[in-house]
Amino acid sequence: MSLSIVLLWVVSVSLLAHSQPNPRGYLLDCGAGKQSGSTVGELKYITDEGFTSVGNITTLKTPDLVPILSTLRYFPDTSARKYCYVIPVVKGGKYLVRTTYYYGGFDGGEEPPVFDQLVEGTKWGVVNTTEDYANGLSSYYEIFVRAMGKSLRFCLARNKHTKSSPFVSAIELEYMDNSLYNSTNFNKFALTTVARNYFGNQGDSISFPDDKFNRLWQPFNDTNPTVESHSNITSSRFWNVPPAKAFSHAITTSRGKTLQIQWPTMLLPSAKYYISLYFQDNRTPSPYSWRVFDVAVNGETFYRGLNVTTSGVTVYSTQWPLSGQTQIALTPANGMPVGPVINAGEIMQILPLAGSTLNRDVEVMEDLARTFNDPPSDWSGDPCLPTENSWTGVACSYGEHVRVVALNLTGMGMSGSLPSQVSNLTALNHL
Ligand SMILES: *[C@@H]1O[C@H](CO)[C@@H](O)[C@H](O)[C@H]1NC(C)=O
Ligand SMILES: *[C@@H]1O[C@H](CO)[C@@H](O)[C@H](O)[C@H]1NC(C)=O
Ligand SMILES: *[C@@H]1O[C@H](CO)[C@@H](O)[C@H](O)[C@H]1NC(C)=O
Ligand SMILES: *[C@@H]1O[C@H](CO)[C@@H](O)[C@H](O)[C@H]1NC(C)=O
Ligand SMILES: *[C@@H]1O[C@H](CO)[C@@H](O)[C@H](O)[C@H]1NC(C)=O
Ligand SMILES: *[C@@H]1O[C@H](CO)[C@@H](O)[C@H](O)[C@H]1NC(C)=O
Ligand SMILES: *[C@@H]1O[C@H](CO)[C@@H](O)[C@H](O)[C@H]1NC(C)=O
Ligand SMILES: *[C@@H]1O[C@H](CO)[C@@H](O)[C@H](O)[C@H]1NC(C)=O
């Protein structure tokens, strides 16, 4: 499921704002060509040239688009099994990968193509921006993933619904503190963002530098009463370091009543989810500024007897099964003089990783790819995974270790003797 954002039109940015250094990572403005890239707010994007060797670039004709949406890279080669970016990372680091898509009719069509996105050897999900595009919005997707090697491979691929060329407008890679979402085993799982909201507000989305990791927090408001906060928070004291701005308002209800919120608003596919909720008593700090309530999700106790003070608190669940609608209910303890409050929440789907090809085989295959003058365009990313997106001419075994077992180099413009690297593919039994 995609997240949409009104990131369409150029907004004027105060020239007086002191420019902050970018968060650690890469911000790629896809299709920017040889230009240096562009600036959005305080963030500087660089061109994606050099991070991929495939695809064509184009500039949209729509006037006044935000610079990162005005160019894109698309992948017309229908024979390639995937189109990959290889981005340098800190091995073992935890990263947020955010991909942004704005179709803009670049191929002369009416509807955006639907295609897959992959991260390392795992199918991350389907990119379907049809509805957002029809509503005049760009779309983005987020995944939190551990970098297993010295580079992170992000790819697009066709699927059976893909009618025209897959494309991408921007790719962002942000380094996360190790403490973020640390109850998740990132060696086996990734987290894909379903919703990240701050409640009781209708303003702009919160991002860098308010969120130092450049996560996006969208406003959420419903028909419940809202309150403004009268005390500051120190976000570093919270698990997952939510931005202080996310606590400026809260959703509440009157004394003695249960606060019910339909959040997130969309219907969720049946799966396990990481849920993190953020609370703060909004009153001026005093010995009496605290309130106790129970937190329930779809009628099941999520946290009993939560004591929320003016310094605030996070409660989270590592793996919570959800399906369809989600309802959060906050029920006050007996005798509380004020109703419950909630300030912000995050919900991410837990995505099992598909693993990766044995690293030694990957290194040999990448080495081999470099000896070709013109390697097949899908010879980048994981050679064997996902299974339907393995490299052209490469056959693999999918046992405990994923290995390259056969190569068919016919028609790849090879001449003369075989490169010596091939002898290092120790599971190879067919050439
Ligand atoms: C993409 O670029 C290649 C080479 O740069 C060119 O030969 C090809 O015609 C282009 N394809 C499209 C659909 O523009
Ligand atoms: C893409 O999304 C649109 C709008 O939600 C939907 O009608 C369409 O069936 C989807 N396409 C695919 C291939 O899933
Ligand atoms: C996770 O991070 C928190 C700080 O945000 C820390 O207190 C806790 O010990 C960490 N847990 C693990 C398992 O690393
Ligand atoms: C939230 O929505 C309610 C009703 O829909 C409205 O009365 C209130 O002003 C909104 N609050 C904010 C902070 O936008
Ligand atoms: C919050 O912090 C700001 C800046 O540090 C300070 O000016 C303000 O008085 C504080 N507000 C409260 C209610 O503590
Ligand atoms: C809630 O926390 C406050 C501040 O730590 C404390 O004074 C109060 O007694 C606590 N209330 C309950 C019911 O534990
Ligand atoms: C090897 O690839 C060529 C060209 O794609 C194909 O014609 C041939 O049938 C393949 N051979 C095997 C054994 O799969
Ligand atoms: C093959 O592997 C050996 C040992 O890991 C290494 O020293 C050698 O450089 C490799 N050769 C090639 C051609 O990759």
From TrEMBL:
<keyword id="KW-0812">Transmembrane</keyword>
<dbReference type="InterPro" id="IPR024788">
    <property type="entry name" value="Malectin-like_Carb-bd_dom"/>
</dbReference>
<keyword id="KW-0732">Signal</keyword>
<feature type="signal peptide">
    <location>
        <begin position="1"/>
        <end position="19"/>
    </location>
</feature>
<keyword id="KW-1133">Transmembrane helix</keyword>
<keyword id="KW-0472">Membrane</keyword>
<protein>
    <recommendedName>
        <fullName>Malectin-like domain-containing protein</fullName>
    </recommendedName>
</protein>
<feature type="domain" description="Malectin-like">
    <location>
        <begin position="28"/>
        <end position="349"/>
    </location>
</feature>
<dbReference type="GO" id="GO:0016020">
    <property type="term" value="C:membrane"/>
</dbReference>
<dbReference type="InterPro" id="IPR032675">
    <property type="entry name" value="LRR_dom_sf"/>
</dbReference>
<dbReference type="Pfam" id="PF12819">
    <property type="entry name" value="Malectin_like"/>
</dbReference>
